[in-house]
Amino acid sequence: MVQITGLKNILICTDGSEFSGGAIREGLRLVKKTGARVAVVSVIDFNPELQALAPDLVDKMETDIRKHLSVIREEAARESIELEAFTRLSTTPYIEIAKEAERTGADLIVMGRRGKTGLKRLLMGSVTKRVIGHAPCSVLVVPREAKLECKKILCAVDGSVYANAAAAEAVMISKRCGADLTLISVVHAETASAFDIVHSQMHHDLIAENELRVAESGLKSAKEFAEKEDVRCESIVLAGKPYEVIVNSALKKSADLIVMGSHGRTGVDKLLMGSVAERVVGNSECAVLVVKARK
């Protein structure tokens, strides 16, 4: 189990763009707080055809990334942080990042994500979502402007083994950091307002009774674990589109971290991470910790 305050090895990923700024800043802060070893990797999306047609362009990309990594080294040195920084060329960057996580023994990958689009539908970038799907460890996704304080944490629970792992993680982080913890479970409601209806007010013709029972059961188990660890928490059931409710609840609670589960690694190239987790990561204004359940 990964605890944000008890990490041993962290891998920070950067693509050299402004969208990696939050991951670099908060990743180094996390290293400073925990004393973990850290490595920084930048994987260039290698295109053999491009190299054949424009070798100078590829060389420039490598040179620019090395300069970017040099700046990160200097920033880390000012905080007395020693780090390993390296660049890689790969036709499948997400696979290369997963391999580097294995090689460095990372128990957490920290990375950024592309900015929101004008659409409500998620477009968070294939590398980030595929890293989450293939990584051997949990992944912390940090939007550019997000700050990770671990003061107010929101954890999404749905009764699955993946959500249970996330809830256990959220409880331990809250315990170690003294954070306020909110456990939330969302049931679907096509016409219900997510914030006007709580479980005590739900109409049976609107919410499937079985779905509500599963949601309440998952919350009960998570809350019992929190109480066992002497962590006080609020638990709520809301209705609506799950990713919208989770993201809006985090805003309402002023959460600086959302914790949620993900399916384990897939055996295919295309990510099967789950649309709710994917959309929360893509639309959240705060950091999102995607916990990988051990098989």
From TrEMBL:
CDD domains: USP-like (cd00293). It comes from the Bacteria. InterPro entries: Rossmann-like_a/b/a_fold (IPR014729), Universal_stress_UspA (IPR006015), UspA (IPR006016). Residues 8-143, 151-292 form the UspA domain. Pfam families: Usp (PF00582). Belongs to the universal stress protein A family. This is UspA domain-containing protein. It comes from Candidatus Sulfobium mesophilum.
